[in-house]
Write a structure and sequence with these properties.
The protein has 206 residues and is α+β, with helices and mostly antiparallel strands. It has 8 helices and 7 strands.
Length: 206
């Protein structure tokens, strides 16, 4: 994000709305320059179309700008910190068997979002379906055939900041892959223990 446009987003976040003139004064720029940046932010779907603002004094109507929901992505989040604390608290209060049941439940919820298997699905078709779904969830997955089955690679961990200190996302991943393929995967490489990615062996058959 270009610095001036980020500053515009921050001002609109703080004030909810602002006019071109108000933004120009705050940033020490000309109204023409502000309009240029607003046009770019609107084209990117981050700023709403201007709305007419009634004036308390005579004069031309003013137009105010506000943020779209998409702009929220450009402000700090602490999802990882919240999830990390929640997992620590759950480990302190929940028995291991109950924790595993919860993780399996999360895996089930995620797996139900995946497309259903096609009739008489072959192993390659299954792997393509699984990889496509995992990629839609941010795993940057790929697969390759190997003797007796397939190797499923997850090049990216969507929960990297959480999984650095918590094994639960890895347990959930394995459970989800089991539900997607009908086969309990064998972990061959594990990013949690220092590997460059996570790799699972999926044997042919059920």
């Amino acid at each position: 994000m270009q610095a001036t446009r980020q500053h515009i987003l921050e001002i609109l976040k703080e004030r909810t709305t602002a006019t071109v003139e108000e933004l120009a004064k705050d940033l020490g720029l000309t109204p023409v320059t502000i309009r240029h940046h607003l046009d770019i932010l609107r084209s990117e779907g981050l700023v709403q179309a201007p709305q007419v603002k009634r004036r308390d004094t005579p004069g031309r109507p003013q137009h105010v700008y506000g943020l779209t929901e998409a702009a929220d992505a450009y402000f700090p989040k602490n999802y990882a910190g919240f999830t990390d604390m929640m997992l620590h608290e759950m480990r302190d209060q929940v028995e291991p068997e109950r924790m595993r049941s919860i993780l399996d439940g999360v895996a089930t919820r995620m797996a139900t979002r995946a497309p259903a298997p096609i009739f008489n699905e072959t192993s390659p078709q299954q792997m393509e379906r699984v990889v496509k779904f995992l990629n839609s969830q941010g795993y940057d997955a790929s697969w390759e055939p190997t003797e007796g089955g397939s190797l499923l690679h997850a090049h990216n961990c969507p929960y990297h900041d959480v999984a650095r200190e918590n094994v639960e996302p890895c347990v959930m991943d394995a459970s989800m892959i089991t539900q997607l393929t009908g086969v309990t995967p064998q972990r061959m490489q594990w990013a949690f223990s220092g590997g460059s990615m996570c790799t699972y062996f999926i044997r042919n058959g059920k």
